[in-house]
C-alpha cells in the first residue's frame, strides 16, 4: 500500500465526524416565516452541489500549525495537485482539521472562492515568481505544499472554526 493510500485511509475514518461539523454550518434552521409559508424546516446554504475538500492532519501538529492550513503544490510524478484543482475553480469549501484517536480536535471550514480571490490578488501584488504562501517539502520528499496562515486571508474566508 502506498503512503498516499495509507494516509487517505487514515483521514477517511474522520469523514462521518467531518460531515456532522460541516452540516452544522452549511445547513441552517429555517426562519419561522419559511416554515409557515414555504413548508421549510431546514435550509442548505446553496441549492446546487457544494464541493468540500477535506484535509486532516495528525493532532500532534495542531499546537504548532493550528493557525494555518496547507495545500499540496507538487507531486513526485507530476500528478495534478490540490492547488491546481482549486485554482481551476474546483471546490467550494475547505475543511481542514487535526485529529487523533479521540477524533477531530481542531478544525476550520473555509470559503474557497474567498481564497481564490485572495490568491489572485496576491499574485498581482507579489514580485513575479514569488507565489503566496510558504512552500515546504514533505519529510519523505514525495510532494511539496504551500502553508497559508489564516491571518493572511480576509476574515470572510473563515466560515466557521473550532474554539481551539
Explain the overall architecture.
The protein is α+β, with helices and mostly antiparallel strands and 164 residues long. The protein has helices spanning 3-12, 15-26, 32-38, 62-65, 82-87, 112-125, and strands at residues 27-29, 42-44, 52-58, 68-75, 93-100, 103-111, 134-137, 143-149, 158-161. The longest helix is centred in the last third of the chain and has 14 residues, at 112-125.
A few lines on this structure:
The chain is α+β, with helices and mostly antiparallel strands and 164 residues long.
User: Could you name the ranges where pLDDT drops below 50 across 5 or more consecutive residues?
Assistant: none
Helix content: 25-40%
Give the count of helical stretches. Answer: 6
**Beta-strand fraction estimate:** 25-35%
Query: What's the story with the biggest beta sheet?
Result: 4 strands, mixed
Task: Please give the structural blueprint.
Blueprint (H helix, E strand, L loop, with lengths): L2 H10 L2 H12 E3 L2 H7 L3 E3 L7 E7 L3 H4 L2 E8 L6 H6 L5 E8 L2 E9 H14 L8 E4 L5 E7 L8 E4 L3
Parallel strand pairs: 3-5
Antiparallel strand pairs: 1-2, 4-8, 5-6, 6-9, 7-8
Amino acid at each position: 500500500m502506498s503512503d498516499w493510500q495509507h494516509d487517505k485511509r487514515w483521514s477517511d475514518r474522520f469523514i462521518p465526524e467531518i460531515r456532522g461539523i460541516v452540516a452544522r454550518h452549511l445547513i441552517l434552521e429555517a426562519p419561522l416565516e419559511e416554515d409557515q409559508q414555504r413548508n421549510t424546516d431546514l435550509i442548505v446554504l446553496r441549492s446546487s452541489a457544494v464541493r468540500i475538500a477535506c484535509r486532516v492532519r495528525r493532532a500532534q501538529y495542531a499546537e504548532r500549525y493550528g493557525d494555518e492550513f496547507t495545500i499540496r503544490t507538487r507531486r513526485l510524478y507530476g500528478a495534478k495537485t490540490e492547488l491546481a484543482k482549486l485554482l481551476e475553480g474546483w471546490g467550494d469549501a475547505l475543511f481542514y482539521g487535526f485529529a487523533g484517536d479521540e477524533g477531530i480536535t481542531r478544525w476550520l471550514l473555509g470559503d474557497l472562492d474567498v481564497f481564490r480571490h485572495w490568491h489572485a490578488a496576491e499574485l498581482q501584488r507579489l514580485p513575479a515568481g514569488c507565489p503566496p504562501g510558504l512552500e515546504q517539502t514533505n519529510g519523505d520528499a514525495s510532494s511539496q505544499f504551500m502553508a497559508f496562515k489564516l491571518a493572511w486571508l480576509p476574515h470572510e474566508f473563515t466560515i466557521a472554526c473550532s474554539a481551539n
